[in-house]
Design goal:
Helix 1 links the parallel strand 1 and strand 2. The protein is of the alpha/beta class. The protein contains 18 helices and 12 strands. It is globular and about 65 Å long. It folds into 2 domains: about 200 residues, 3-Layer(aba) Sandwich (Rossmann fold); about 190 residues, N-(1-d-carboxylethyl)-l-norvaline Dehydrogenase, domain 2. The strands form 3 sheets. The protein has a 6-stranded parallel β-sheet with strand order 5-2-1-6-7-8, sandwiched between helices. The N and C termini lie far apart (about 45 Å). About 55% of the residues lie in helices and about 15% in strands. The chain binds 1,4-dihydronicotinamide adenine dinucleotide (NAI) and 6-O-phosphono-beta-D-fructofuranose (F6P). 6-O-phosphono-beta-D-fructofuranose (F6P) binds next to helix 7.
Length: about 400
């Protein structure tokens, strides 16, 4: 079985490539870094180390790589593929869609095999988003065939893989925990099961539990930590005051999730405890700038901050900690983060209320709008945003 994976970055190598290879797939990474491609082609394997006491290491075999701009190679790989996966960042899906679409057209000319395409990104409905971009690129005459042969099952992927810094550029250090949940009913026939993945009939409870607990909690640790002038998530979680605030946010989103999906409260509390332990993993060094990256995306209406806040409002659940985290996110101004720079410029030029309307898509008359303005103004008035930026 052959898998084509777009984006051999941290999660691509440290999680998706690993599970695919261990399930018997030959993995062809579609990449854009020439040196990385050369290494993967020459060595055909790479090491993944677990962030635990023993630094358990496994070698991921049967892998290769091609360049995304090498049309012939990408076409051939897609024609022969049994599965396509991506981990490029949800905002980059539109950039890789033309390459996937061209490969699909070439495949349709050579064979009539069904193909599953899964976007393994931190977002609700990432594969559905990818489908939209790919369909935009497909010539009209192929759309009927695309409907018949292609499937874009949504997934939820969970494993903390920080930025890497090793002598071996292919090595990845990952946390021991992982969860890959796949929406089974959406799969086309002929899919070879991925060992270690969980196939479910309804994905929504899983993706929402993960996005609104792990990702909400994690980015809140980053934004609170940033304001405190810290560098790493581990430092933030070692500060009892910040850890308490992160837990409170997760309890607030937890109330939403329990209400919405009927989760067992005590089991969900254990899920929160386990997640907090994962954030604090002393074997990892995860930078606040990575976990808080792209604040405009993270503050968008359907993402990890605003979506649970809006749902909570609809359920009559108060979320003071989540609102204060949104205020902190609005102050995140990490160097080299283009979205952070844009957000700060918009705040300077348009003001907080306009930014909330435009980027968070919460209209002025919504009660949450006013609460976020207040939280943001309090942080600014306390001089915390500037102090955080200076120290970090
Ligand atoms: N790192 C983590 O712990 C986790 C990450 N994710 C998700 O996985 C995705 C990837 O994240 P990371 O692996 O951390 O990022 P990364 O930056 O390490 O890897 C991204 C990969 O995508 C490639 N890429 C990006 N834009 C591209 C484009 N326009 N054309 C071609 N290739 C492109 C990059 O070259 C790189 O190989 C994101 O959606 C993230 O939210 C999900 C769960 C955990
Ligand atoms: O990859 P994103 O969406 O920018 O967010 C970073 C986050 O995703 C993760 O990689 C975990 O799923 C976390 O490390 C962190 O919550």
């Amino acid at each position: 079985m052959k898998a084509v994976h777009f984006g051999p970055g941290n999660i691509g190598r440290g999680f998706i490539g690993l599970l695919l290879s261990k399930s018997g797939y030959e993995v062809c990474f579609v990449a854009r870094n020439e040196k990385q491609i050369a290494q993967l082609r020459r060595r055909k394997q790479y090491p993944v180390e677990l962030a635990n006491n023993k630094s358990d290491t496994s070698i991921i075999r049967n892998v290769t790589a091609i360049h995304i701009n090498d049309r012939k190679d990408v076409n051939e790989a897609i024609a022969a593929a049994d599965l396509i996966t991506t981990a490029v960042g949800v905002s980059a899906l539109k950039h890789i869609a033309p390459s996937i679409a061209k490969g699909i057209v070439n495949r349709f000319r050579t064979n009539d095999r069904p193909l599953n395409i899964m976007a393994c990104e931190n977002a609700i409905g990432a594969s559905t988003q990818l489908k939209k971009w790919v369909y935009k690129e497909l010539p009209a005459k192929w759309l009927v065939k695309a409907d018949r042969l292609l499937a874009f099952p949504n997934t939820a992927v969970d494993r903390i893989v920080p930025a890497q810094n090793h002598e071996d550029p292919l090595k990845v250090e990952v946390e021991p925990f992982y969860e890959w949940v796949i929406h089974r009913p959406a799969l086309k026939e002929g899919h070879q099961e991925i060992k270690g993945a969980l196939y479910v009939d309804s994905l929504e409870p899983y993706i929402e539990r993960k996005l609104f607990t792990v990702n909400t909690g994690h980015c809140c640790a980053a934004y609170f930590g940033y304001l405190a002038g810290l560098w790493t998530i581990q430092e933030a979680m070692a500060d009892p005051r910040l850890k308490h605030k992160v837990r409170k946010v997760m309890e607030e989103t937890g109330s939403v999730l329990v209400r919405r999906h009927g989760f067992d409260e005590s089991k969900h509390r254990k899920y929160i405890d386990k997640t907090i332990e994962r954030f604090a993993n002393p074997h990892l060094l995860d930078q606040i700038v990575r976990v808080g990256r792209s604040p405009i995306r993270k503050l968008s209406r359907n993402d990890r901050l605003v979506r649970p806040a809006l749902l909570a409002h609809d359920y009559g659940i108060e979320t003071p900690y989540l609102v204060s985290a949104i205020g902190a996110a609005l102050c995140f101004n990490a160097e080299k983060d283009s979205e952070a720079a844009k957000l700060q410029q918009e705040l300077r030029e348009q003001g907080i209320s306009q930014v909330i309307e435009q980027y968070l898509e919460i209209e002025e008359k919504h009660p949450l709008h006013r609460l976020i303005v207040t939280a943001y103004n309090e942080i600014k008035a306390a001089g915390q945003a500037e102090a955080g930026a200076e120290k970090s």
